[in-house]
TrEMBL record:
Region annotation Disordered: where it falls in the sequence: 24-56
A Pfam family reported for this protein in Swiss-Prot or TrEMBL: DUF7350
Record-given protein name: Fe2+ transport protein
Organism: Halomarina ordinaria
Ranges where the DUF7350 domain occurs: 241-364
Xref: InterPro entries: DUF7350, Tp34-type_sf
Amino acid sequence: MRRRRALSLAGLALSSALAGCLSTLTRDESEGDAEGEGERGRPDGSNATRGDDRPEGIYIQSFQESMSMQGESTAGDYRVALAFTVPHDFWTVTGREVELVPRTDADSLHLMAVVWDPESERVLPESGVSVQLTREGGVVTEEVLYPMLSQPMGFHYGANVVLPDDGTYDARVRVGGLSIRRTGSFRDRFGASASARLSLAFTDETREAVATRPIEQGGDPGALAPMDTGYPQSLAPPVSDLPGDLAGETERGDWAVAATVLPDPPTGIEGTGAYLAVSPRTRYNGFLLPAMGLSGTLTREGEPVFEGALDRTFDPTLGYHYGAVVPDAAAVDDLRVTATTPPQTARHEGYETAFFDLPEVETTLASR
């Protein structure tokens, strides 16, 4: 059996172990445990909604799950981990258009890959990733993995996959080079594609590690807490960990924003002046929000000091962020950040209606 899926999104370019079921919910002011025993199989969708009655914004997904870790390997500049769980409904995003990709009875598993820099352990959120599965020298399937956001995993690459039967498959994971701006020691890295080779074991034993259970609170405002996977996650750094003499942070609606100002731009960025770096993240869990369009305005005593687009940038110190050279910045400046394009990533349940009509956020820069 051989199948290929194509992906087009606007604006883009472990040793075997079980990650246990999550038992934590993240809410506005409380945390609670999801009750119920884990069961093998796929989410039954009893609390999930596919139509117009889906909650607006971030909501607790209707099920918890565990996954089977399939190992990790090095590919050029990249480190790659592979895992699978039960097949999922998910939603693709192109511009502002959202399309449901429903799981089918033919789907065997939901295959997931995470890619990161092994030196800094920063996750790479804007690379093209595909996987080819072979067995006994023959190609079984080739899949393009969608860039995705989920509540337990944050950013990863994934797709539902059909396998002909049980067995161990050779997996060749191809990682494409980054097309976004890279700075500092990342300037000469992550530009070329590379391939990692791993094994995918789809057997009774590995499926036994995969379980789901419904969540009574599914549909309520909030999110499942991040899963302990054993490899780096796309958690945005707290503002206290960002370099710079001026900083600010704020939260509104489905997102939070941390900002910092460096006295000089990172190496690789032309221009003179200070450098404004903005790091947007999901509410509740603090995962990076990649592949957005952002603009910023710095105002001092009612007069604009800077107005313009913030460019997607990957830096070893600042991480993945949106930045611009600004002529000047002071501790009295007010920063307003506007989302002009929602994140161009697929979404798992709980995120599919979020991040589309994000409110403007404002913060005042403070010395530290």
